[in-house]
# Entry
Amino acid sequence: METKALSPDEAYENKMHVIGRVTLPIGLLLTFLPPVILWLRFGILPPGKSLLQGVVGISSVMIPVSIVEILTFTPILGSAAMYMSYLTGNISNMKLPSAAIAMESVGAVPGTKEGDIASTLAISGSVFASELIIALGILLIAPLSARLQTPALKPAFEQVLPALFGAIGAYYIAKSWKLAAAPLAVALLLGLVPGVPTALSIPLCVLSSILAARFLYRKGLVRA
Amino acid sequence: MDDYLGVANDPVFFACGAAIILFILGQAALFSRAAYREGRRLGMERRTLWRSFRAGAISSAVPTLAVIVALVTMVPVLGVPVPWIRLSVIGSAPYELMAAGIGAKAMGVNGLGGSGYTAAVFASSVWVMCVGSVWSVLLVTFATKRLKKRVAGSLDKDPAWRNVLMNAAFLGVFSIFIADPIVRGGLPLATLGSSALIMALVGLAVTKLRAEWLREFALALSMIGAMGAAALLAPLFS
# Structure
């Protein structure tokens, strides 16, 4: 227990950590229900040797990827946003853009306390919307399967990411084209090299973006 | 080959899915209640707080449709409940497919759902999908508090730099996804351009017509418009 009294800011931050540190491991255990039920109720379990091989395979990919990803996202997202994002996934293609647009629509500045609160609420909104829409999709899965695979709609859904990031790009270039220049140049160069995984290219772009921003800020070329 | 699908679609797994979704919504409710109260304590308006929540929800609706499309493609191989649960938690569609593939390979089966994809292979896929996401969740659980303290300590001295840094970091992540369609050209580039154009028009409408309410719809409108454009333009590029 802390002996000195906590400021309201610290109390809030601590509360978020407590909620996160309790809910996230429980959520993780719940995700193991399907394989455990397959094993205990249906008696279906892969042989130990194969299971071990699969676990080693996926872990050798995911341990380094997770470390790099978390070092990249923690400074951007607030604590509560991190705990929610890692329980529900789809971070760079859904959670981050939603948080950015929500902060912009209420005029909150990223990295401030207000920005933290706005993005926490935005990510909750994102979680509610996405989980409920997916559940609705499950209820309608039979008619949807047929509709979504019609040739006319196929190209639209193959282009979801360009459709998302065209708007995001326009927003940031209008907001600060000087900040956007360096990471975009690096991203274009990396894009010309085939086979660079995003686990490597995202941190490289973030790093170059921050270094360029530091330079521009020192020279007085960008302001907050 | 299809015998495992009967098991995979057993009602007990739908019940698991429902329990997990309820738990996720419960966590989001706890966090948003705490953030809402803290916002009120700091004197932020009710309207502003509610608007943040709504903007997050609206902006996520269209990307979620893409998740449903991924779901539809996974169902024939993995049944309904497992893809539903996996796409509702932690990873994303490419991760789940990779993990399911590694699980199958460990059993000596190449690819998902081919001949030889038995119940045991299915179980192997499911175990690997679950175990692969343990690392990131454990790291976030145990490291976020410490990492946050470090970041906060070094940034509080210069708030103006902190703002620039945040925007730069967001841009760093986004630029990869902006550059990709430019490099690929063709339909992806046309879609990117349509989306950017609609976003710019919405931005103009917000400032010129003072249509403040449009802001939170900007992303959803741009995406729907650009996806419509992609469907219309597709014959030109094929």
Notes: Chain B has a mean pLDDT of 85. Residues 181 and 237 of chain B are 14 Å apart (CA to CA). Chain B touches chain A through 152 residues (CB under 8 Å). Residues 158-237 of chain B form one domain.
